[in-house]
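The following record pairs a protein chain with its ligand, zinc ion.
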Amino acid sequence: MNPKAYLDNNKQTRLDELFEFLRFPSISARSEHKEDINACAEWLSTHLNKIGVKSRLMPTGGHPVVYGEILNPAAGITVLYYGHYDVQPVEPLNLWKSTPFNPIVENGYIIARGATDDKGQLWTHVKAMEAYMATGTAIPVNIKILFEGEEESGSENLEKFVKDNKDLLKADIIVVSDSAQFGQDRPAVTFGLRGIAFVEAKLIGPDRDVHSGSFGGSIANPVNMLCRIIASFHNKDGRVAIKGFYDKVRKLSKFEKKQFARLPHKDKEYLKKVGSPTLYGEKGFTTLERIWSRPTLDINGITGGYQGEGGKTIIPSWASCKITMRLVPDQDPQDICKKLAKHIRKNCPKSVKCEVTIHGGAPAVVVPTDGPWLKAAGEAIKAGFGIEPLFTKEGGSIPVVGTFKSVLGADTLLLGWGQNDDNAHSPNERFAIKDFERGCYSALALIEELAKVRA
Ligand code: BES
Ligand code: ZN
């Protein structure tokens, strides 16, 4: 049997296995899930060993890395596959039509947390490797695998891990399936990702919640003050009003502008996918320019005071918010964090105490849009989807991709099989079985196409 026939014959098995994988509540952000994360990593590594990949868990400062390799002395090149087995938190639970870690199939979609981001997508590559191993077909490339457990919480320990294991991870090209197609039946090669920077701010007023009748009007309310500060983050044109925020921002190139304008994007359809009343963003840019090539600042969550049933008349003791900024070339995450921290401190009135925590981040990345690796990726996508891929960028971030370039010196192929409206990070995350399947066949073809690059 050849590897493709193996894929043809094992459709249900690879789905059943993926379901098993999806059942681990591997939420990296939550310490109470530490054991689930470990169990998931163990399971994944065991599975890799079972299909013939030599795999082991490797410790990091946080959740473990699942490392694996299939080394073939006769092969000319080495491909490093990256993916993440951790997932985002699942709240709000009441909006899920099923239980997040009990996958179901509905109308051709797998519904579960991690279905597309990223368990389902990394699974396509694992199953492509298995197709070779199970049919006794020699794999024409050296394969290395790095599946991490902290991507959804910022890959805080991965840069050090990559630096410490530079020789082990050395590769000619990196393959990542953790992005999306451009739309239905619009497979894409992504040539850029935005970076990210995280900051938290907390304002503290009275040393406990106090009666808003007895004290309101005589002291500052931290929630009111935080809202003022948040309001100062943008101007009326939707631009970020932090001093120096745009200093290093690389202007859109002619190539990008042209490339974006060529894509089959319709604002109306886009708006329907996201479900907002209207579009909104920085003045002077199109939607695709705004999400792919312009930096942003967003409050991800804001907390403070009483939010329970009924009323409670208090001046809250504190208020806090979590802030992320999406970065573009050549903004530096640390520099941007510092600029924001300075802005917050400067705009914080003396009437409250201010604590700013900088969590750092990762820079934006741009990968080549031509050359033999890209050509190989295009051929593989054509083989799996029967469709020529588009060239797109993405507004999301995969922190380690920049590290792969700076530490390993290798470029990354970003080949996403999912869709941007597959509800990643939202309730009812899903992955169309059709996309999963086409991803598997593309992943299989990719191995052969990459081997040709040096042959
Ligand atoms: N799969 C996403 C990255 C992504 C999102 C690519 C959208 C293309 C489009 C990844 O799992 C992710 O969500 N990354 C985080 C990183 C952050 C926590 C540092 C993100 O972008 O929010
Ligand atoms: Zn994600």
